[in-house]
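Chapter review: from sequence to fold.
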Amino acid sequence: MPGFISHWWIIGLLIVVLIIFGPGKLPQIGGAVGTAIKEFRKATSELKDEVTKATSSEPQQSSPPPLEPSPKETTEAPKA
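The C-alpha cell string follows.
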C-alpha cells in the first residue's frame, strides 16, 4: 500500500475497533458505513450529472424572431 499505511496498521486498527465496539456491534457499524458510502456516491453522481447537464446545455444563439406581418396585410378585407 502506498505511503505509511501498511498491512500491520490496518490489522491493528481492526483489532482496536473490535476491542472498542465488540463483535456484536461490528455488523451494525459495517452496515451503517456501507449505507453512508452508497448515499455519498449517489449524491456525487447526481451532482456530477447536474453539472454536466448545466454545462452542456449552454444557451445557444437563437435566430431572430419572425417578422410581424405588415399593417397592409392585416387590414386588407378578404376578397369575395
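Two observations follow directly from the output. The mean pLDDT is 80. Helices lie at 7-21, 26-56, 71-75.
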